[in-house]
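Q: I'm building a small set of examples for a reading group on sequence design. Run inverse folding on the following structure and report the sequence directly after it, with nothing in between.
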């Protein structure tokens, strides 16, 4: 059976901080290296969402960009995206994207921006920006031995409510809010994280975890063959070394 994966990049023209777009390259390459056909669609303000998407990705952006796109995300695309999230389609949101997957983001001196609520989290800006490298232990069941590395830069403090689960537990860095030691969130197949870098080149296990979720949601239980990750794991280790100094 030949497998096909459709990835939708949400607002690539507005939400692309610290190389977030590199996450798309990693997903595409790691799928293609397994002989999977991949199609990437870009969707921005004024565009509609098609139903055949298996994986939605949204990167980070400043408050300004978030303010520009939030009404379009909520009013034009929200119902469709919520329905697809309920059907188990995979979503990955980074930083500003993560915040808008939640219920709302309240910037410091501006009105609240409503999100689409596919993650049971909310975010409020604090006074100090959380900037630096992050090292976290995965809290995904069955993946507790894996770690995540990346770079964070945000003023938003994100808090998890009842239905959201933490993605990681902070070893070094601030994470969601600098107090509860959680990094990111997940619920069904929706994942959010503050980690730029981009995230997936340095955390190849997480790229494959997400690809398997997306393909399994479409085709039933899919297990990907391993790749030679020598270089990627070297980068992961180096990032841990730097932050542990
Ligand atoms: N505007 C948000 C914040 O500062 C998101 C920043 C980002 O995406 N890096 O909290």
């Amino acid at each position: 059976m030949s497998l096909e994966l459709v990835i939708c990049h949400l607002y690539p023209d507005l939400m692309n901080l610290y190389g977030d777009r590199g996450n798309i390259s990693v997903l595409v390459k790691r799928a293609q290296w397994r002989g999977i056909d991949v199609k990437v669609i870009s969707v921005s303000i004024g565009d509609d969402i098609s139903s055949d998407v298996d994986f939605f990705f949204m990167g980070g952006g400043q408050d300004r960009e978030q303010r520009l796109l939030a009404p379009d995300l909520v009013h034009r695309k929200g119902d469709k995206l919520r329905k697809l999230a309920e059907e188990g389609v995979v979503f990955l949101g980074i930083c500003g994207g993560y915040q808008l997957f939640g219920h709302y983001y309240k910037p410091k001196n501006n009105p609240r921006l409503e999100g689409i609520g596919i993650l049971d989290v909310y975010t409020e800006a604090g006074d100090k920006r959380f900037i630096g490298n992050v090292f976290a232990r995965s809290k995904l069941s069955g993946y507790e031995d894996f770690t995540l590395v990346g770079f964070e830069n945000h003023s938003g403090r994100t808090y998890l409510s009842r239905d959201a689960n933490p993605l990681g537990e902070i070893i070094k860095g601030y994470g969601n809010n600098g107090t509860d030691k959680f990094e990111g969130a997940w619920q069904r197949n929706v994942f959010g994280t503050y980690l730029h870098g981009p995230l997936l080149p340095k955390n190849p296990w997480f790229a494959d975890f997400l690809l398997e979720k997306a393909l399994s949601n479409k085709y039933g239980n899919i297990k990907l063959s391993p790749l030679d990750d020598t270089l990627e794991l070297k980068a992961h280790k180096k990032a841990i070394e730097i932050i542990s100094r």
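The radius of gyration is 17 Å.
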